[in-house]
Amino acid sequence: MKICNEDKLLAELLRLVPVSLDQPLGPGDDCAATRSPKRGQLLLLKTDCVAEGVHFLRSDDPSRVGWKALCRPLSDIAAMGGVPQQALITFFSPPDLDAGYWKKFYRGLGKAARRFGVTIAGGEMSRQPSGIAVSITLTGIVPEMQLLQRSGGRPGDQLFITGRLGGSIAGHHLDFVPRLAEGRWLAETFRPSAMMDISDGLGADLPRLARASGCGFTVNLADIPCRRGSSIDQALSDGEDYELLFSLSPKKAIGISERWADVFPKTPLTCIGSLTRSQDPPSGWPGGWDHFKEFDT
Amino acid sequence: MKICNEDKLLAELLRLVPVSLDQPLGPGDDCAATRSPKRGQLLLLKTDCVAEGVHFLRSDDPSRVGWKALCRPLSDIAAMGGVPQQALITFFSPPDLDAGYWKKFYRGLGKAARRFGVTIAGGEMSRQPSGIAVSITLTGIVPEMQLLQRSGGRPGDQLFITGRLGGSIAGHHLDFVPRLAEGRWLAETFRPSAMMDISDGLGADLPRLARASGCGFTVNLADIPCRRGSSIDQALSDGEDYELLFSLSPKKAIGISERWADVFPKTPLTCIGSLTRSQDPPSGWPGGWDHFKEFDT
Question: Measured by CB atoms within 10 angstroms of the end CB, which terminus of chain B is less buried, N or C?
């Protein structure tokens, strides 16, 4: 069945996801309208996207692509220590695409929305001549005192990562679980000095955290936890890990491994190095994934 | 110059637009963070998009496309009676596109942002195999008691539209000025029973307002103000007018034309008909622009 009518398709798709009914205004008007977060809470805003041929293939199960599309910005909310709230979904659809594709996509997206307490507040659709692309905007809240930024790291802080890195393309990039529980727990208990999620690979993302903090870094490559079958190179450069990278003062770092293992026994937490005063990356440090690097002139 | 480095390009582009500096956290971290609206104000959320070949052509001036990309969701904020606040920009770029394209695009977008008081709070970029597409998310605020929805119209309410309709493709679709001042003024003074912006053409959008209000409608076609060179058919079906459509109780409707002419002397305001009890559209009522209608089976 080809897509015949925009309003009808959107109405059908909205039946497959949890919508923002408790708000003054959910999908269907010119804008969504929502009550403000409580006093002392900040509103988080994130926009992210997936494009066919870059983040997924036409042959991938659309429901897994829908899961991934929402879980990517969820990973960013996690990296701020936040709690996700509402999503707005914009999709670009080639004219020859069957409407069934979007129903499967919304089923997977709805599964992620229900699991992580997100409601759908609105969206937009457009044709485009070729290729599927989706942009998702996500709001979240975080107590103002618990906002975790990239920029708070200090020389001497220890660097930690959750989970294992590399080889995401074998499947993890479509099925990963954003580290929301872990991010919230860290914000409430250990309050890392800096935190971000690893989406472009540790090779690209660690220098970003260090630069934002006005630091350099040193890493013991042998300590980097690789996903089964992945080399250190892949762990640094593949990208799409969606793990958390954070820095802790040496004092706080002493106690975390034991507490972590109690609360998240299935998820490794690894100290891989530390922030330094020198702002140069270690020699030979590889870059991670850059959307445009292959087009360097 | 081809796009070589994502971080560098984003930094360059952000120099061309007003960014959210007064917020706790602007572009550059995993999410943007913003203080909540004041008590009694609602937060508006809108996402919208432009795709090459649908909303613009590769040969169009990129700065006009950037202007349009931001002004489209601004028109939706206007339709709620709101004041725009922050934007997040996601763009999909084909690999052969020159970085200069995005600089021109951001210049046009920045011009609109400055004119309408919007700051850029973040964004994302991705390659896609072909075609340029941009999705923009915009926040706004509106006093809770002044939120203008599509759903409040009642039988007997008079229907008004701002400006003239039709023939947008000749240039208006790239240069239009969103009706923010008009929307705010209406929300503060006449408080329309229902309001929306006309983006898919009056033919498609008026039935949406009527349906949301549980009404039908009657329109005197001869009263519809057409843009110079446009027929009634074009005024109903071309789309991309970005004018405001609203309903007013008969009592309020008596006084509006005179007051309007004082405040907005250059913008026509026209009463085109009224909402009715019957929920069927008038026979022969044309549809407007539907992104997928040409693919009907």
Answer: C
Confidence class for position A294, pLDDT limits 50, 70, 90: very low
Cβ of A9 and B292 within 8 Å? yes
CA–CA separation, A236 and A289 (whole Å): 9
Beta strands A83-93; A194-198: pairing state = unpaired
- What is the number of other CB atoms lying within 10 angstroms of the CB of residue A117? 11
> Tokens 């099925």 map to which residue?
A175
pLDDT of residue A8: 82
- Beta-sheet strand order (sheet of B41-51): A32-34, B41-51, B133-143, B83-93, B119-127
Buried b (16+ CB within 10 A) or exposed e, A184-217: bbbbeebbbbbbbbbbbbbbbbbbbbbbbbebbb
Give the alpha-carbon dihedral of B249, B254, B255, B261, to 10 degrees.
110
pLDDT at A286 over 90: no
Mutate which of B292, B295, B296 to disrupt the A interface (most A C-beta within 10 Å)?
B292
The reply to whether residue B150 touches residue A29, judged by beta carbons under 8 angstroms, is: yes
In angstroms, what CA-CA distances link A281 with A97, A198, A211, A247, B76? 45, 17, 9, 16, 46
How confident is the model over A188-215, as a mean pLDDT? Answer: 95
Integer Cα distance of A157 and A161 in angstroms? 13
Residue A46 to residue A66: CA distance in whole angstroms: 17
Residue A163 has pLDDT above 90, yes or no: yes
Picking from B79, B94, B235, the residue whose alpha carbon sits closest to that of residue B169 is B235
Nearest to A122 by CA among B46, B19, B36, B17: B46
Q: Of all residues in chain A, what percent carry a pLDDT higher than 90?
A: 73
Asked if the Cβ–Cβ distance from A122 to B47 is below 8 Å, we say yes
Choose the mutation target among A52, A128, A136 for the interface with B, i.e. most B CBs under 10 Å. A128
What are chain B's domains? 6-146 (3.30.1330.10), 158-295 (3.90.650.10)
ipTM, two decimals? 0.85
| Cβ–Cβ below 8 Å for B25 and A147 | yes
Distance of CA B46 to the CA centre of its chain: 10
- Contact criterion met (CB below 8 Å) for B179 and B192: no
Sheet holding A158-162, edge to edge: A194-198, A243-248, A158-162, A269-276, A216-219
Per-residue pLDDT of A120-143, as tens digits, reads 988 888 989 889 999 999 999 999
Give the pLDDT score at A160: 98
CB of B262 closer than 8 Å to CB of B212: no
Q: Which amino acid is at A220?
A: N
The runs of H, that is alpha helices, within A143-179 are 172-175
Residue B284, pLDDT score: 77
Assign 3-state DSSP to chain B and report helix, strand, coil percentages, each to 5: 35, 30, 40
